What does this fold into?
Amino acid sequence: MPQPKKIPHDVPDEVKLVLAHLRPVPEALGQERERLLTELATRQESSTEALQQLQRQVAAVLVSLRPDTPFQARLASELSSALDSYVKHPGAVIPPPDIIGDCMNHVRSYLEAIGMSPLLAVVDEIPDPPPAHAEEEDRQEHELQMQHKFGSIRG
It folds into this structure.
């Protein structure tokens, strides 16, 4: 069974504490990850430019789950940006193709397998943000609710 990832020296102590207690990844999940990466690569050439960008970012997230790949916190925000760009692109197929959902389900299974289920429970409780066209007062109220429930996550 593969060993957990090495902990980079430049991450905060709180993160090191969590990462030090993660379980190894089951081999079957590694095989599934590689199958998904192959399928993403196969679809890349026949996809629209907007979908290609999203698929590249999803693939980067999957590659980051390989045992010898260092932890890259920036991938979450980059994936979110790629998904936002895709959804806003004219002619984008909504919802995105099933392979994107399959990859996101794989990431969830990976997090559960390594012992990050408590984090997933918190993420599941986060309500959707108000629509972009919502009044400023509604957005501020949403922000206050999030800070109250989860604490401030901004540095």
